[in-house]
């Protein structure tokens, strides 16, 4: 077989090999065999010394043509493989935009915060301001200013966490009354405030007791504030919280910072007063404590009790939430079990 026949055979077989390449790696191997430094074409070039010099340019030309042809075919085949690879990747990584998305979970407001926010807006709408006293309170504001001197027996009503002689975890939000009374400028108008916040008592935790709970203090002081103002206000609060059909009643009570003092009951919203387990078969449920501000509280804060008077009330936010949502264990408020909390979730959309 002469050199030209050899070249022709190489061209045909080479093209066939390129066409049959199975993948890029295989194609690369074929390329090295055909046009690489130690490939078949190079080998033929090396054998040029064995042929007549007059033939050499022709052979060289032919070899170059075949190399160009191979290279062109190899490039085309390579492109095909690259393209196929891209298409495969695209197909595999295809995103179905019509699939339904994953729903994010909405958090829920804590039941006590629902009550708190609701009451705050309610009082703000009636012209009250909202104040926030410190949870680490002084004996001075928590007790002494509130007409509870050191040896007062009523101090036993609230078991206190003392930090030292003077500082304590407040047992009640009532100290806020003294703080605002001291600062209020009555020449600018009456004082109307609510003071929500956490309070602490040295109680053993069980279904109905907690060492920490939340109150909202209320105070209105002006000239000519009467007990009927208190009664009207409490009635509105009770109806706002527990329904417009509720009946209310006041019972005499005792608090050191009010005189007279009262407790308010609402007719049972479960049995409408007929008697059931919730109202302990009395038809009534105790909801808050209140009274006319004791003159000593006003005087302690430098307010002239012969000119000014007012009323105060204390709301138990945990108690309101318990009654409103039918919660049987106060500990549920503070253990943060999501199964409990998510019951108060607003509609998911
Ligand atoms: N501080 C009282 C308590 O913790 C609640 C209270 C009762 C507050 C009567 C008041 C009030 O302002 O007038 O038991």
Bound molecules: 3,4-dihydroxyphenylalanine
Number of strands: 10
DSSP strand (E) fraction? 15-25%
Number of domains: 2
- Strand line-up across the major sheet: 1-5-6-10-9-8-7
Rg calculated over all Cα atoms: 45 Å
Low-confidence stretches: none
Question: Which architecture of the largest domain does the CATH hierarchy give at level 2?
Answer: 2-Layer Sandwich
Q: What do we call the CATH homologous superfamily of the largest domain?
A: Bira Bifunctional Protein, Domain 2
Give the overall form: rod-shaped
Protein model, in words:
With 349 residues, this protein is α+β, with helices and mostly antiparallel strands. It has 2 domains: 3-92; 111-344, BirA Bifunctional Protein, domain 2 (2-Layer Sandwich), CATH 3.30.930. It has helices at residues 3-20, 24-35, 40-46, 56-92, 111-125, 139-142, 175-183, 227-242, 295-300, 317-325, 332-335, 338-341, and strands at 129-130, 136-138, 161-162, 167-169, 191-200, 212-222, 248-255, 258-267, 284-293, 309-316. The strands form 2 sheets. A 7-stranded mixed β-sheet has the order 1-5-6-10-9-8-7, with helices on both faces. Strand 7 (248-255) and strand 8 form a beta hairpin. Helix 5 (111-125) crosses helix 10 (317-325). The chain is rod-shaped and about 135 Å long. Residues 172, 174, 217, 255, 258, 289-291, 312-314 line the site of 3,4-dihydroxyphenylalanine. 3,4-dihydroxyphenylalanine is lined by residues 172, 174, 217, 255, 258, 289-291, 312-314.
